[in-house]
Amino acid sequence: MNTIVVAQLQRQFQDYMVSLYQQGYLDNQFTELRKLQDEGSPDFVAEVVSLFFDDCAKLINDMSISLERPDHVDFKQVDSGVHQLKGSSSSVGARRVKNVCIAFKECCDVQNREGCLRCLQQVDYEYKMLKTKLQDLFNLEQQILQAGGTIPQVDIN
Amino acid sequence: MVKVTKLVTSRPIVVFCVLGFLVTILGCISTSNWLTTTESLINDVASFTGDLRSSLVSEFENIGKFSYPKTNLSTIGLATVIDSSYLTNNDTGFTNIQTQIAPLLFEAYSTIPQVSQVSYISRDGFLFSYIRADIDTSVAVYANSSSSSSGGDYTWYTQTVDQITGRLNGNATKSQPLDVTHTDWFQAAQRNNYTTAFLGTSLGGGDNETLIQSAVSLFSKKGVVLLGFSVKSLTDVLSRLSLHGEEFYMWTKDGTVLVRQGSLNASLFISNGSICFGGRESKSVRSQCIPENCSSSGYEVEIKRSKFQAFCSHLEVSGVPLRYTVMFPNDGGATRIKHQAKKALYQFFVVTIFVAFGWPVWFVWFMVRATRREMHMRATLINQMEATQQAERKSMNKSQAFARASHDIRGSLAGIKGLIDLCRDNVHPGSDLDTNLKQMNVCAKDLLALLNSVLDMSKIESGKMQLDEEEFNLAKLVEDVIDFYHPVAMKKGVDVVLDPHDGSIFKFSNVRGDSGKLKQILNNLVSNAVKFTVDGHISIRAWAQRPGSKSSVVLASDPQGVVSKFFKCMFCKSTDQTEISNSIRNNANTMEFVFEVDDTGKGIPMEMRKSVFENYVQVRETAQGQQGTGLGLGIVQSLVRLMGGEIRITDKAMGEKGTCFQFNVLLTTLESPVSDMKVRQDIEAGGDHISTPNLGLTVNTSLGGGSMNIRNLSPRFNNCLTSSPKQECSRVVLLLKNEERRRVTEKHIKNLGIKVTVVEKWEHLSYALERIFGFSPQSSMGRAECSLSCPSARELPLIGMDGIDSRSQLPKRRSNSFNAVVLLVIDTKTGPFLELYNVVKQFRRGLHHGITCKVVWLNESSTRVSERGDISCSGPLHGSRLTEVLKMLPEFGGTGLKETSTELQRESLLRHSFVADTSPKHKLQEEGPSSGFNKELGKTIMAPTASESETWFKSVRTGRNPIGNPEEEQGTSMPSNDEFLRGKRVLVVDDCRITIKVATGRLTKMGVSEVKPCYSGKEAVRLVTEWLTQREQQGSVNRLPFDYIFMDCQMPEMDGYEATREIRKVEKSSGAHIPIIAVSGHDPGSREAREAIQAGMDGFLEKEMKQDQLANVIREVESKMNAQATL
To answer: What is the pLDDT of residue B381?
Structure first.
């Protein structure tokens, strides 16, 4: 019985992963990240990801403050924030966030406040979305581990 | 011609005029010529006619003058004779006349020619005359009484005369008397000159015909002698003259018309001695008289509307004056010619005019019509071309629309698949719904595959397919494809074999081209082969050759041969394609790679061979039960052509089953292969024959036919070859199930110069082993050979040859410096494993010590094999796996049991599918040397080693899962880099915690012992300075604080560039140089990357820090530093 549950969970996990890739939430960098996780650092991915989300929250907060006042916006600050966000998102493999960051950066470069605000909202949405998705994923992982199974390797092709 | 037509069409009237003018001029010239000719002709004819006329006139004169002058003389003569006789005889009575004069008369009558009447008339009226009544009858007319005697009884008698004697005979008949003595002429003759001539009727006879008579009076004036000549005879003579239409009239002075000859039927009369035509009284017709003096020049006269030229003259015949006129019709002779010439001239004029106007008109008309027709045709052609273009455009648009549409469909399909997956998650596994969903998934997948092929097709059709050039390893690609299909085929009992042919594919394995499309082509062909082959094998041959050398495929695609070449020359524009491919061919680095996929399936019927490459065509007989759109080969052909090649089905030998697809592609080989895979292939291909340790040397081999460029040989390998000029040969024993694989593998190993023994059945294994090694294995080759030549040829067919081969090729290698290795490669599918194992065990036991026996089991689980200390190999034995197996031989740097190469041992540990000897002895040897090895050989050796094992792993991994993008493959090669940075200490500078975290994870994975995170440039500078000062104080020079620094470029406060500059400044004092590698979100090659290098950084890495990129960068940095160090 247990094995069946595990198998089902594993398959669910696999499919979920695939869907995340297909929907463009994640890219290969995430796979790389997962490969780095081994016995020595069992929670490596989770750690990195949580760090990322913390960063995101902080940076987005900073940027929204910067963009709050319409008359005088510190675009430089926003730009550095966006750059950081872009770097960290590409490190994690959060593809959608990264893509929004690229657009965001363009808006920053031309000092388009409206565009920046729009992008900010988008980034906020995307990272939260990703957060819930990854939360689900980690929950699944936990379930599999609790059921005594191993986390399957997922081939993204 | 076209110009003429154009000219004519543009100015028809001008051309018409010009032509008409020309023709007129021509006509005029010829007319004048004609006229002069006619003129001279007329003159000639006129003179001729004149001559003729004058001769005619003279002829008349002659007749007049010469025919009748003697009549007078005769008359005079007769008169004289009668006179004399009359003188002698005075009697003048009739009797006297009859007796004396009559005979004289008769004499004259008979002798004088043409005389028709001879008479004597006395003064008294006595008369005697002979008259020619007819041609043969003559009569005599006489009067025997005087006219003056007794009044009224003067009678004349006519009596016939005997022609000969002149005597009267017959009855005398009375005839009308004529008062002769009182006639004018009698009087005239009596009166003057005794002689006179006149024209009168004859005295008697039948018909009183007109005679020209001449009367001469006797001297005594007693009588008159009268001779008469017939006028008729004269006119007969005249008539006998040929008259060419001339009119001839002759008349006497008193108006008697003697001769009237001619066709003219006009009434005429004589008035006043001249002849007149026309009615005498009638006023209607004016009479025309010809005057007398018309002899010299002709007198124009018009009679009955015809003009005549009249000539008249006098003529005296026998003293009778006659007049005559000759009239020449005006329409004869020169005049007629003149007329005719004139008429002909008119005709000529008419014709000329007709031609002068008609011909240009016709010409212009013809030209205009021709032009019109041509214009029409051109217009039609243009219309047609437009239509064609439109059709092409439409087709193109259709293809594009189709491509777009299928793209959308693909999107929807992906959605469906995703939904199916979602549904399956919510379904209890194993239920009906689940199975249905599964099937739906399969269907959707099929649909997607189908759509992909259609999409490819439409892409190609709309010309959007482009080659995606990248560097890749061709040998690996081919092997990957085969490995992918191998399990599927093996399930059907079909083996898929890679036949390296002459090994050239390994020599030029690093190429630049579209690997994806090449893979697609091979996949399609191999999958087809697998699909249609039920038993037997599928072999994939690949070799490289110089483009255009003897490319059979290209030749075959050009069946027109010389003719088509000729046309290609003629129409250079249409040969763009060929030119392009030629230019590709001419590129020095371009190689032509020929592939053959040869199966033993059903085969394709001859007549279908051409059409299988057309879209939507499937061979019906074979396609039954097999699905597909029939697009596959069409796409394959398009792709092959896209890559500058051609595909065809080659003919197999008679009796051989199956199909052989052959295609060639043109790919650019890389001049300087970076990858270390090359080394592997070089060793494999020709490394056997290396005898010098120099790197990059060219070695000629007797096998393979060409020179091979060997680079970067591993030192171990060179060492092995050079240090031991005399060594024992190794031997490989193959026990393989599939015949084709046996053949190919044997050939390949033989090409490398290794002796091979092939065993077909497992039962023969022990026998064969005994045969080969039954004697002392260290015995000389000759003995072994001798023993080998004995067994039955079928089982060991090539052994004898092997011996010769290896002896000739490897003469130096026979020595005892290291021991030979016997490598048994056994396919466990050939027989029961345990039995086989026993055979091997026995063989091992029986081996002379000093000979190593290694066993590679194919298709056997690794655990079972490794328990026994052997090696197992899963997957087909070819390509890199075969190379790996052969590397265990000492010839290729493999280790015997006594020698342990740390490098290779370590490598063998990394093998996943190969399980190296796990004997404790090996394990013990493994750990220690690996680190020692690093230190000894230095880092330069490290890199290739790592990459070598990396590529090895790639191939092993892809053996299981060959179809995957290269990126992913590279990702899977992680474990190989595990030891890459072993023991290194690294400083990671980044303001982003996440990046540091990730980098830390990655580097740790690669064996880095210490990763120091650092969150700002300033801090990094501080750390480095701190450490450097420490070092100076301690005096420990050797160790750097960090082996590498990974520096983020963009950071707040102090960015990477500035930090690097600072560090470099600090370093200067101590003379150290820590490699700093820039990490940035930008591309390598961008402005930032250059800036980084300018700032003093040593390498550049993308933010993702992919494992292989990392390894590459570090390798680069290392080599740079080494270069500096040696300098």
So the answer is: 95
CB B213, CB B220: distance < 8 Å? no
Buried/exposed code over B747-782 (b: 16+ C-beta within 10 A; e: otherwise): bbbbbbbbbbbbbbebebbbbbbbbbbeeebeeebe
Nearest-angstrom CA–CA distance, A90 and A68:
27
CA dihedral (B967, B971, B972, B974) positive or negative: positive
Nearest to B974 among A7, A35, A91 (CB): A35
C-alpha B787 chain-centroid distance: 66
Interface predicted TM-score (ipTM) of this complex, two decimals: 0.78
- Say if the Cβ atoms of B994 and A41 lie within 8 Å: no
B590 pairs with which residues across the strands? Answer: B668
Contacts of A87 in chain B (CB under 8 A): 990, 992, 994-995, 1048, 1050, 1081, 1103
* Distance separating alpha carbons of residues B634 and B456, to the nearest angstrom: 10
pLDDT at B380: 95
The reported pLDDT for the residue numbered B389 is 93
Select the more confidently predicted residue: B785 or B543. B543
The band of B691, judged by pLDDT with boundaries at 50, 70 and 90, is very low
Q: Shortest CA distance to B246 belongs to which of B319, B328, B171, B190?
A: B328
Question: Which residues, listed in sequence order, are joined to residue B658 by a DSSP beta bridge?
Answer: none
Q: What is the pLDDT of residue B221?
A: 73
Is the pLDDT confidence value at B920 over 60? no
With beta carbons less than 8 A apart as the criterion, state whether B138 and B161 touch: yes
Question: Whose CA is closest to A130, among A51, A20, A46, A33?
Answer: A20
Q: Where are the alpha helices (DSSP H) in B821-878?
A: 833-846, 862-867
Closest CB to B429: pick one of A8, A87, A92. A8
Which residue has better confidence, A4 or B65? A4
CB B553 within 8 A of CB B645: yes
CB contacts of A22 in chain B (<8 Å) are 414, 418
Nearest CA in chain B to A8: B429
* Inter-axis angle of helices A28-36 and A44-68, nearest 10: 130
Comparing CA positions, the residue from B967, B966, B1001, B961 lying closest to residue A35 is: B1001
SS3 A155: coil
CB contact under 8 A, B1002 and A36: yes
Q: Under DSSP, is residue B316 helix (H, G, I), strand (E, B) or coil? A: strand
* Cα–Cα distance measured from residue B299 to residue B403, given in angstroms and rounded to the nearest whole number: 114
What separation, in Å, do the N-terminal and C-terminal C-alpha atoms of chain B show? 82
Q: Mind telling me how many Å the CA of B754 is from chain A's nearest CA?
A: 41
**pTM higher than the cut 0.80:** no
For B966-1028, strand residue ranges (E) read: 985-989, 1010-1014
How many whole angstroms separate alpha carbon B504 and alpha carbon A132?
A: 55
Q: Phi and psi (nearest 5°) for B678?
A: -55, -45
